Amino acid sequence: MHTFEAMNTTVVTLGLSPLHQNKAEKWFAFAEQTFSRFRPNSELSWLNRMAGRSFLASPLMYELLSEADRCYHKTGGLFNPYMGKIIAQIGYRESFDRLPSPNAVRAQVTAPKLPKNPACFQPDNSSITLHQDAEVDLGGIAKGWSAHRLAEMLQREGVSRGAVNAGGDIAVWGKENEHLQVEVDDPFHPGQTRLTLRINGSAGVATSSVMKRRWTNQHGQEYNHIINPWSGTSSRSDLAQVTVTAPDLVQAEVYAKSVLMLGAKAGLDWLSDVQPGFGVAGITTEGRLVTNGVLQTISVLSDQNGGVDHECAS
Question: Which PANTHER family does the record associate with it (predicted)?
């Protein structure tokens, strides 16, 4: 197992040679410099400062943001990469481990009213024009996309089986009938495995939680980094954590956050309608495990707290 720090998280790789481990570290360092909201000289920071004007993007920025924009429209705005201003207003202005005193956090924020298309993409010259009130925050999708792209690069170079875990966003690849077990932590007991998933072949596994990046402002109001784009406030659903499996890690990341915001009943029903082949396992705020029963790419080997509710996906 190979571990290193990048993109404000711990990255873990499995099955890589020293040469490919070095490539993984360099790739994530490059991705962080491109997509970080916290680095003033990152390409993302320059894009945000150019809001309202045409910005000539690099191929990587254009590819990721256009993919994020497609997910924004496909989820009806539930996944929203244009929430940078709201995230900053509630206090998440820099890397979580360097957040200032919560006394600087506003008690109330107002979500900006964005047009139907917050960004205009010109594929002829890879230019992007953000609406003047939009600010991009790529957050988790950048980690998932970077892990997914690295997995693709490694496979092209002949690495037939492996895994990349970027802070809970996991790209797994291998031959059919080659199973890899993925352990999912209990959100209320970090370091303890709540359930184990058995992945067959290649898949993306993304876990999103409201329990990790949390803070309280001077009024005693609790915040987490999962922002509901419709209310402009942190997620307040009955789900504490959601894990989604999909053929593509980017899709798994997007739909894990979406289900987390919608809640157990509405979220699992919605996912069954829009992506019926995706697997989902959620942990409610009361500690209950809920799943949609999809076992095409995911098998629950153990639920150490006992109790699995399949009734949420009616």
Answer: FAD:PROTEIN FMN TRANSFERASE, THIAMINE BIOSYNTHESIS LIPOPROTEIN APBE
Question: In the chain, how long is the greatest CA-to-CA distance?
Answer: 55
Per the structure block, which two tokens stand in for 57? 């993007």
Higher pLDDT: 237 or 58? It is 58
pLDDT in tens, 160-206: 999 999 999 999 998 876 778 888 999 999 888 888 888 888 899 99
Residue with tokens 């932590």: 185
Distance CA(115)–CA(80), nearest Å, equals 13
- Assigned token pair, 129: 């024009």
Which residues face 243 on adjacent strands?
Answer: 207, 281
Q: Are strands 308-309 and 289-291 parallel, antiparallel or unpaired?
A: parallel
What is the spatial distance between Cα 305 and Cα 203, in angstroms, rounded to a whole number?
A: 26
pLDDT at residue 229 tops 80: no
Please give the Cα distance from 118 to 147 (Å, whole number).
26
Q: What is the pLDDT of residue 275?
A: 94
CA angle 209-14-246, nearest 5°? 45
The pair of structure tokens assigned to 139 is 């957050």
120: enclosing H helix or E strand: strand 119-122
Using alpha carbons only, give the angle 286, 109, 84 rounded to the nearest 5 degrees: 90
Could you give the angle at which helices 139-156 and 18-35 cross, rounded to 10 degrees? Answer: 150
- Could you tell me the domains of the chain? 38-137 (1.10.3980.10), 175-309 (3.10.520.10)
Least confident among 102-111, 160-169, 258-267: 102-111
Q: Are 167 and 11 in contact (CB under 8 A)?
A: yes
Mean pLDDT to the nearest integer, 92-111 = 49
The Cα 130–Cα 127 span in angstroms is 10
**pTM tops 0.90:** no
